Amino acid sequence: MTAKTTQPPASPADEGESLFEWPLTPEVRTMGAGELLDSLYETIHRLNRCRQWDRTLLLPRFGDVVVDRDRRTISARCMWKRKPAYRLDGEGGAQ
Questions:
Q1: Are the CB atoms for 24 and 72 separated by under 8 Å?
Q2: Cβ-contact 78, 20 below 8 angstroms
Q3: Residue 59 placed within a domain
Q4: In 3D, which of 20, 21, 28 has the Cα closest to residue 1?
Q5: Which residue, 38, 41, 35, 34, is CA-closest to 20?
Q6: C-beta separation of 19 from 7 below 8 A
Q7: What is the pTM of this model?
Q8: Residue 5 phi/psi, 5° resolution?
Q9: Within a domain: 64
């Protein structure tokens, strides 16, 4: 699963809950449910460590993940909190 996601609507809020959507890559389209969740969790962890991504995502709750193999997407409703400026590239943080 790639880290590319549909951005949630721009919001001045420092925290919230949004629906995030990721494309299913050819490698993960044939995975079972457990493997897909592992891949989703790894993608979320990668985004949380990424200094260009401006939010920290909490892992989705049970029932907040939808796999749509026809549309080739996986969606998850996640709570998030905006990262402080020092954790982002180009905003005064250590590189």
A1: yes
A2: yes
A3: yes
A4: 28
A5: 41
A6: no
A7: 0.76
A8: -145, 155
A9: yes
